[in-house]
Amino acid sequence: MALVGNMISDAFHGSASTVNYILFVSAFSMLTLIYLFAASISESFMVHPALMFLVDLLNTIFIFCGAIALPSKLRVHDCSNEDYTSRNSITRDAPNRQERCREAQAVTAFLWFLWATFLASTIISGLGLRGSMVDMRGPRPGRRTRPSMSQV
Known about the structure:
By secondary structure, the protein is mainly alpha-helical. The chain has one domain (2-137). 70% of the residues lie in helices and 0% in strands. Helix 2 runs antiparallel to helix 3 and helix 3 (49-74) packs antiparallel against helix 5 (97-137). The chain crosses the membrane at residues 20-38, 50-70, 109-129.
């Protein structure tokens, strides 16, 4: 988030919409991470297991979109090539275009790591949601249930 904020603050005439989107994704994931952390520790914060799954899924989708959009606009190239950085929509509005190009490459790498962690979290939340949904369905009609040991 700090790298993206630095990219935005260094821009001359405003930053590219892709960079602004990456800042939104970073802020959204940090804010929702507070909820996810609290809901993981205490069930009183977890309104419903589906909400945790939904938040994880939104983070995964948003981060994936950002991790695709930034390198597609950056068109990973040689950051020391002045001709390339002066024409690129991500790097052209910065006083030090080579530094901004390297920051954008670093942000791309961080986004992919973040996406992998949120994907794992989404899978874990989905498995937890699946387990809670099985309990909520109850016995199926036409199927005999056997009493548990405490009922015998």
